[in-house]
Amino acid sequence: MITTNHSIYKIIGILFFLTTLTGNAQEKNIKLEDLKKSALEYSNTIKNGVLRAEKAEFARQEAYSKYFPEIEASGFALYGFNDLVPPIPQTLPNGIDNIYSLGATATQAIYAGGKIRLANKLAQIQLESRELATEEAIDSVILTTETKFWQLIALQEQQKTINASKIYLANLLKQQQDLLDAGLIAKNQLLQVKVEKSSLLLKENELSNKRKIALLDLAVYTGITYDTSLVALNKSDLQVIAPSLKYKNPELDLLNNNRYRLLEKQVNASQLKVENEKADLLPQFAVGINASTFDSFNYDFNIGVQPIAFATLSIPISAWWGGEKKQLLQSKIDIEIAENKFNDGKDQLTLSIMKSWYDLQNAYKQIQFAEDKLIYAEENLKTQRDNYDSGLNNITDLLDAQKTKQEADSDFISAFANYQQKEATYLYVTNQLQLPNIGKS
């Protein structure tokens, strides 16, 4: 079992704690949890996903309405400037110059080859697919937010190591100036420290620009107002636990994975499409009732409402050798294509889970390596400084030791941020990402 040195985590805790203490009055802290909430509320991808799910729900309701009778009403009226029917003595003395008709029809499908049932199943699958896609979009936004956040954290912490190196070199430069003034060293040793300090200032400028770009990227993605005074803030008690102790080895429960379930829905939809096209080859039977009346506005006919019951039967005979049959054959091929895509997608999902698991383990080992390197660099710098003060080595050895210490600090910070990103990726591909509590600030 891999263990970590608690002293290193104390260093991390101090670094993060100093983030809050050294921030000036203009600094504005931003937390990962708040950024997640903001990103979820701001994301247009999620908004469109919700709209598509809402649209699919209306489609499901539309399909369900087909279970009920279709009712329609109709009416027409005619008016003739001359009599439509001339006067008939004793029978129709005034003639007829207007007529109207009113009617209503209700039709109920008794058997439609199963199309109504299949349409409802397909609409339900589409609704479930849209809901899964929305959940997938939410997870994707959470993952991207975490990745961008830890990129910013890494750059901020690297700036701190640069500042610590600047202080160290400034003190060393003052010491060199004193020694030069006393005639104890050559001028080139002083210049050597100045060159090292100039190189550090150049790197400081590059890091500052990278941080501004990372902050802008995070602000644009999460919808917060960009401000160079924003500082990403993390918990001071954060510790890294070995993946083998924290998670299963690894989590391959595909049945509860949203991406796997989406692949299944695609296959199910293709199968239902074939069943629906089979229904086009089957007879359709419906019954209905019509009630209508026909008269003139003068009530010349005096005809009451006449109810009529009817039934319809449709048998698509030519469909068995026409285009409908060929469409059915094409849809069967579509099922095979969907099944092949499902198998490929399942294999790719399994592969991505295993890769993310091994990436997480490697990231944890990188922290252990960076920890050992940091311990060595700190001890080596102390030794080289003591030797330099005692006249046992030259300024080059001391500067090399200081540079090694700076690199070790940077590597440890990068390894720590990289682990957080790899952990978020693993939780994403295994469908275990935790959503922020939107109800709390």
UniProtKB/TrEMBL annotation:
Its main location: membrane. GO terms for cellular component: cell outer membrane; efflux pump complex. GO terms for molecular function: efflux transmembrane transporter activity; porin activity. It is found in: Cell outer membrane. InterPro entries: OMP_efflux (IPR003423), TolC-like (IPR051906). The keyword Transmembrane helix does not apply. Keywords: Cell outer membrane, Coiled coil, Membrane, Transmembrane, Transmembrane beta strand, Transport. Transmembrane segments: none annotated. The keyword Repressor does not apply. PANTHER family: OUTER MEMBRANE PROTEIN TOLC (PTHR30026). Belongs to the outer membrane factor (OMF) (TC 1.B.17) family. This is Outer membrane protein TolC.
